[in-house]
Amino acid sequence: MKIQNIYKYLLAVLMITFSTACNDEEFLNQAKMASLNVGDEAVDNTVALENLISGAYYSLSNFGGGNGFHGRQKQVAELMADVLVLHENQPNVSNSELNYYGRTTTVNDDGALADVWQAGYRIAHAANRVIGVIERTGGFRDGNFSWTPVLLGEALFLRAFAHFQLVKLFSAPYGGANNGRPSIIKMDRLPVDGFDLKGRATVQEIYDFIVADLERILQEDLLPESFNATFHPAGYVDRAKKDAARFLLMRVYWMRHEFDKAKNMADAIITSGGGYDMSEAPIEAFNKANFSPGGTTYASNVRGKEVIFQIIMFNAGARQQSEWKSADQVLQSMSFSFTGGVNPNTWNTNNNQKRVSFSQDFMLKSGWVDPVTKAATPEALNDKRLQQVYRRWEAGADNASEYHRNLTQPYIWGSKMSRTDLLGGQPRRYSYTLFRLAEVYLTRAYINFANGQTQLAANDLDVVRRRAWAGDPADFQVTDPGTLTAAKIHIERAKEMAFEDDRLWYLKGLMADVPAGDRNTSALAWDSERLYWPIPQRETTLNSLLGE
């Protein structure tokens, strides 16, 4: 039976089953986090399918001492762009960080890049097991059968996400002659055996594959529109919904330079009724935890109001503290953490972790720093982001000066990703935000501008600017569409999205040069070979088909 033929039946059953929340809660509580060796696990019921999906989500973040998928990829990409600077003369800077910042993409034996590759295909492997079983059998006719279309939708989303992260990092970008070039492996099925090796698909084939998975989710209505506490168990709050698929598709269309299609996805997210808005302060997207204060109880629907998708700590239910997942520890070096979570103005003395800040180049472009005196400008003093998710540190103000002894001028540091949560001072136990509504508005702002709709562009830009405004609301200056420029949109986006794996891909989508930042070099073309990495050596050694 083709899976398409059973969707209407499945969704009808789904609505009936969701009306009894007990069954749903029991289903997610039965499921356990899949082992990393997902191929060793029998798949003979719906709970087993859920275990695979849960394991794939788990692989997105930080398992096994920092070998997570998304954090490593972000560290590489953020250091390659121009908005941040690596303080190369500080202690504990690694050779890998020097390579990323130096854009030394001739290196093919970097351990973190190899981890990204393996984690991405681990996610795709788990997703393919779920997709293959459901398409072959139509799902298991057990007590949890009603979850089948949702699990299929999540598998397609995770497979698309994994391929998208990999193709960005290990391939020439989409466009022109690049589309026929060899890219990464298209993992569209399970291998038959250990000798069933695959070569590299083209850039075009990989992007078409990603788009097909995401469009299928939307066309076949596989994922729910939003979390509903009446029907869904608490453990489902952080799982991908329909707007996560739309958001990822918006990013993919951006990378394919299909801006009108990207705008359609942005429009759909903003009007979807998913419960997202920009009413909260910037920090609220980053300081939520999945647990109620004081224990292991899973708190329902704990996320910032603008958050569309965040990494879960685990799939659901009554877990023990020892099983909580720390989110993205690998990014400590890119963050400015607080002490104890009590006073946000108290600096953490472990400043050897703080090796990455905003570049001097960008600080001047941002309007946050006076070009002559280096003092904070009135614009900076009235920006909530500099009070909440970034920190300006004056020269000589470091209370662990042995680490930053060479900093003779102010720098602005990030504090989005490494903080203390609501649970008694344990660092990094919080929901890790991946998709935010601010990015949607900024994407649509540029596309409206490029289409000549400057008033609409100004309106979208001001949604982000107004949320960041810390002064008297009556003093907020709306954007004049007559003086709006693309550069203003680009700068506002960089202010909002820094430290979040955005800048490099944003510029590649625009086919714009990537500036040098604080490097003593020249800008690079958007498709320069110095802006993507070779397939890791240990993979090409095992699979000779991965050669050019």
Element order, helices and strands?
HHHHEHHHHHHEEHHHEEEHHHHH
C-alpha-based Rg, rounded: 23 Å
The rounded distance between the terminal residues' Cα atoms is: 40 Å
Uncertain regions spanning at least 5 consecutive residues: 1-22, 32-40, 291-301, 314-330, 336-352, 420-428
Can you count the beta strands?
6
Mean pLDDT across all amino acids:
80
Apparent shape: globular
> How much strand content do the residues show?
under 5%
Q: In what order do the strands lie side by side in the largest sheet? A: 1-3
Percent range for helical residues?
Answer: 40-55%
Structural description of this entry:
By secondary structure, the chain is mainly alpha-helical. Helix content is 40%, strand content 4%. It has 18 helices and 6 strands. The strands form 3 sheets. It has a two-stranded antiparallel ribbon. A two-stranded antiparallel sheet has the order 2-6. The radius of gyration is 23 Å and the shape is globular. Residues 1-22, 32-40, 291-301, 314-330, 336-352 and 420-428 have low confidence and may be disordered.
In short:
The protein is mainly alpha-helical. Helix content is 40%, strand content 4%.
Write the layout of secondary structure elements.
Elements: H1 7-18, H2 21-30, H3 46-60, H4 69-80, E1 84-86, H5 95-102, H6 111-137, H7 148-170, H8 203-219, H9 242-255, H10 259-270, E2 307-311, E3 356-358, H11 360-366, H12 378-381, H13 384-388, E4 390-393, E5 411-414, E6 432-436, H14 437-450, H15 454-468, H16 486-497, H17 503-510, H18 537-542
Antiparallel strand pairs: 1-3, 2-6, 4-5
